[in-house]
């Protein structure tokens, strides 16, 4: 622990309320950030005996044992404090008194609160995996600071100061450093846990570390490189062997772009009955089980001039099972669990991303790094470059807010803003 943040520890002889036998309790007194708390030592003395204990004169064997016990408790307290990355009264009390939290529903530790969140009914498997990533990042932070039991601390241990140090650790010191968007994703899951703790009364509103004056992830973000309209035309016209892996990767990338930037998870959920010659309607997987009802269902209209090309791509990649209720693409089955679907989606996206760089090279695209997700960003950015309003782009993407859409809008080469700035010199 930072020495500047170490609490002051001393022994307090509490003479405010005498016992019937005229003795008074001794307590351990901790003072931290102008806040003081007292912890009983289960020792009671008369004023005379306490004076002897202080002076060290005429100490009986019994008083000597009491003095040894007091010293032992002080050492225990200091060791506990030294083992904490960030001091917290609630955690200190639990560990100092040896209190144990038995029922998981009453577990107010960081680990306990995350466990409760992950056991929430109807919580999607993919969301639970993100909960777990956030928890593991906290565990790695505590381990790095020599506090392997940090996640067993009381939930109020998570403070603004801790979150700032945690962010710095993930950005600069973790074995595999994280980007700000990733840290932002983790912090949203931590915030959910803190909101749960606040609602249950486990923390005081003043201890809530998020909000206007609380912790927020740094605003700086890396701008994703996107393709231009001409690049997408080059991909569309690129001649590839239909059974090749490059054609496979190119088809999936184009399919997302031509179908309003649809995510892979939503493509894989499509059934044969969903597709018509004009387009399809889909229920967004990402918000299907949330209370946000806006734009859950998205209408995809095939671009009339490119309808034939779009249907050709679907025909090349579709399943051989043409039953109405069968999946359009051959990757999901009705028996699959959410966990199995997530693993299959990740396997497919790795396969697509593995071969997209070769596609970009064959099409002579000027892009440093290409992945399936760039198709969605490119769809939004190309429309924005053509002066389509952010509100319409947001509706086409299935976003509930234009604030979300703004993260998808990137400057394209030849953008009017770029052309205007060139006139400076």
Report on this model:
It is built from 16 helices and five strands. With 425 residues, it is mainly alpha-helical. It has three domains: 3-82, no CATH class; 101-207; 229-422, Intergrase catalytic core (hpI Integrase, Chain A, Orthogonal Bundle), CATH 1.10.443. The protein has a three-stranded antiparallel beta sheet. It has a two-stranded antiparallel sheet with strand order 4-5. Helix 4 (110-118) packs across helix 7, helix 5 (125-144) crosses helix 7 (180-200) and helix 13 packs antiparallel against helix 14 (390-397).
Features:
single chain; 425 residues; mainly alpha; hpI Integrase, Chain A; three-stranded antiparallel beta sheet; two-stranded antiparallel sheet; 16 helices; 5 strands; elongated
